[in-house]
Design goal:
Elements: E1 4-19, E2 26-40, E3 43-56, E4 62-65, H1 67-79, E5 94-95
Antiparallel strand pairs: 1-2, 1-5, 2-3, 3-4
Length: 96
């Protein structure tokens, strides 16, 4: 018997202050990366899909991004705040 499936991981890449396209408020937005991995006997082997999105902390609206847009926002968060630990990657992902 072979047991296989998928498992999702959610990484918080950065927190940015942006104007929300949904509610129009300047609020903090979390930049997130969701990775779905193929599992064999409950061991994650390789990623099947990777998706990027920002979520407004004021209204909860989520906007999908391309990989290039996410990298640009992450670089902006890391470089725009004079060395403060503002855009650090979480060590442990949220699992779904």
């Amino acid at each position: 018997m072979i047991i296989f499936g998928t498992k999702g991981y959610l990484y918080q890449l950065a927190i940015l202050t942006l104007v929300c396209g949904q509610c129009g408020n300047p609020a903090a937005h979390t930049l997130r990366k969701r990775v779905t991995k193929f599992t064999l006997f409950f061991v994650p082997l390789f990623p099947l899909s990777t998706k990027y999105a920002t979520q407004c902390t004021f209204c909860g609206a989520e906007q999908k991004l391309t990989k290039e847009q996410a990298e640009q926002l992450q670089a902006q968060a890391a470089g725009g705040h004079a060395g403060q630990p503002y855009g650090q990657t979480q060590q442990q992902p949220y699992q779904s």
